[in-house]
Fold this protein.
Amino acid sequence: MTFHPKIDYRELHRSARQLPFDDGKPFAYTAENRARLEEIAKRYPPEGRRSAILPALYLVQRQIGFISLNAITHVAEAIGCTAADVEDVVSFYTMFYTRPVGKYVVQVCRTLPCALRGAERVTEELTAALGTGPNGTDPTGTFTLMEVECLGACDRAPLVMVNDSWHECVSPESVKALVERLRSQGEAALSGCHHQDPDRAGG
Amino acid sequence: MEPILTKRIRESQSYTLDGYLKNEGYEGLRKALAMTPAQVIDLIKASGLKGRGGAGFPAGMKWQFVVKDTPKPKYIVCNGDESEPGTFKDHLLMERNPHLLFEGCLIACHAIGAKVAYIYIRGEFLHVQRVLEQQLEAAYAKGYVGRNVMGLGFDCDIYIHRGAGAYEAGEETALLESLEGKRAQPRLKPPFPAVAGLYGAPTAVNNVETLSNVPLILLRGAEWYAAIGPEKNGGPKLYCVSGHVAKPGVYETSMKTTLRQLIFDFAGGVRDGRPLKAVIPGGSSVPILLPDQLDVEASFDAVARAGSLLGSAGIIVLDDTTCMVWLAWNLLRFYRHESCGKCTPCREGTEWLVNILDKIERGDGEMKDLALVESVSNLIAGKTLCAFGDAAATPTLTTLKNFRGEYEAHVREGRCTVPAPWRRRSAAPVHSHR
């Protein structure tokens, strides 16, 4: 299929979709997560049980680190919808990982306000320091590097988010030391969000 | 103007329920519950409160449109998806003043006759969500939310719902879809959410900052509120200043303040004393203003008269090292990634624009590509279900209008003519899809 002599649509078009990843392992919620899901589902009216899909997927991701094919089927059964409904959601939102990821998912904001303050250089330095480029995981499975769109912290640009925690005002020069601290101290190496410390809050 | 919404954000315990109660916390709600819903709506209308999410639609009108005679429940949905590049004000309000938002949600529920409010918060704000959840629990425990609020016979629940990374979820009908557990794609309107919103029930969707203004109006009155700003642009406003300024941050002031004051007096001017090249005054989706256009009030109306939009009040400042072709490419890459894919012009058009801009920025562009960029942009703008299409076409159209010479120089010289030290040194990946 091609609409343009110079563009290979098989490669470029969004229809080149990725199927859910089958890791060959069965999936079931732990009793705790299953109970948590039912607790969350009470927030929505009975006809709105499908609203619990996003929280249900976060529970999967917390349990096994990504959303597998079998997890999609399990979530569909737990919610009472089709697996296609769940896959539809998984494939749309960027925060659900459709493949296994490293222990630390390092996400660099690349949108304009961060880019203006050096995010592109930060990604270059991270690529060198982590041993993987964007959308890849290093051979030891420790780091996955991703470039993401605006994280909403433009006043503390460039922002890097590691798993769910923030590290603000990252300079290209500081990247190497940050990665070393991440290796030794884990997420404790991160600055967090400045609002958590009122003295640094605001403008 | 003395800060009002952010007055106590630097006090370490001001975000707690105790801290909030010490400063007239939940007193606005008490006043509201002594009034009829219609009186509350009239008061908000009289204050002139405009929606702070981007469109600037009067909040009182939005509530008035919510269908009253219906057997269905009604809902307030708070839009805390804050995803517009250059915007980071709701984050501050939610994290440092959560009870103000809860109080606003409760008053809104009373006004439209809802028993439930959902706060939809973007997935990347987990640390903010934790504060909200902790404080909500405290408010429930002390009877400010839940059954028989403050012993006044008012029942209202507030729930927090976490998004999962989708810019489009900031559009109100897409947000409702997302809240219903579907892809965040906009709905065909009408029917508007006021008639058929969440689960098909009448719904009002309001931004975090909008709802946070509501308790102030109840406490101090509509006249006090309106007098803070210029005509029809009343109340305090949060501005997010980012990019090449000395002191990026959130600044609260009246809409009488000019854009120039915000950039030079509040945010300390351009970083390293460099010359100012241009300003995007309302988040990445609005047209650029040039340095000689900044002596206007940063109000919804005045910025519109100057040829741009106040939008979400995300002021992105650009110094002379900023390449405008690169800027358009960066933003179009954002819009391509975030296009929800529902409408063909936006889904396919953003893809085309990224490809052509990439080619020009690399130095492989031809003069005819400029006309192509313009044509594709115009084929997106105004031809989609939601405002995303107009937003996506804006970076190219506004840079072509104001900096066409830069595009031509790229083509003529076969390279980027405004390289900057803060940009990548290796060649950009020609096509990365993720």
About this structure: Strands of chain B lie at 75-80, 116-121, 146-149, 154-162, 203-207, 236-243, 249-254, 276-280, 314-319. The two ends of chain B are 44 Å apart (CA to CA). Chain B touches chain A through 82 residues (CB under 8 Å).
